[in-house]
Amino acid sequence: IEMHIFLVVNQMGRGVKLLKDQDEKDKLALLCLRAGEKAMHCSDFKTAVEYLSFGIDLLSTRHWRDEYFLSLDLYNTVAEALYCISEFKKMDRYLEEILSNARTLQHEVRAHCTKIYALGARHRVQEAIDIGFTVLERLGEKFPSKVRFVNILSGLMKTKRVLLGKRDNDLLRLPDMENPEKLAAMGILNLISTYTFLGRPEVFPLVAFRMVQ
Predict the structure, then answer these.
(1) Residues 6+ apart with CB under 8 A from 64
(2) Rounded to whole angstroms, how far apart are CA atoms 117 and 192?
């Protein structure tokens, strides 16, 4: 199926009106997701949007309740594809839908990342940074609203204490991070690091220190 996913979805799409059972529609919607993801990997973003939109159209009216994770994947992936072709208005509508229906903060993070990327692409760097810090605070990583020299000095000293006595090999042997909230926070920190460097340089050292810590 993976080798011929486009052919399979196109052929089944021709007979979509014959599908009456929602379970069958959901199975086709899942195939649409796989086709959309494959098109994304091929950098064919317009085709990806077509497959993913088709998959969303197949969902039931109660899909955020009955097909929650499938809905989450379809909406996130189509938003990312729309970002890649600069269809920002459509992208924003899908992101709003995700953020209105996500059950946990963890389920929101991917949509927030897409939003931050899109704001940066539209040169709205300060908004991208603000959203990043808002999400980080919800993830338990708070930053001062106004950065002073003492904040930078404190962050530097804390980072030095964390690294004290550790060699490169000691760091390389550390176990992989497993805490889902900290992994999500690292993703956001990594994402906004460039934006803070460019648009809010006084905050950039704190972001770098926090990532190391």
Answers:
(1) 71, 101
(2) 9
Taking the model in full, what pTM does it have? 0.89
The per-residue pLDDT for range 95-106, each reduced to its tens digit, is 999 999 999 999
Residue 207 has pLDDT above 90, yes or no: yes
pLDDT of residue 134: 96
Phi, psi (rounded to 5 degrees) for 140: 90, 10
Res 154: pLDDT: 94
20: three-class secondary structure by DSSP: coil
CA-to-CA separations, 74 to 32, 147, 196, in angstroms, rounded:
9, 39, 31
SS (H, E, C) 91-121: HHHHHHHHHHHCCCHHHHHHHHHHHHHHHHH
Is the distance from CB of 127 to CB of 199 less than 8 angstroms?
no
Query: Burial level of 72, CB count in 10 A (0-12/13-18/19+)?
Result: buried
The answer for residues whose C-beta is within 8 angstroms of residue 1's C-beta and 6 or more apart is 8, 31, 34
What is the SS3 assignment for 206? helix
| DSSP per-residue letters across 165-192 | T--HHHHHTSPPP--HHHHHHHHHHHHH
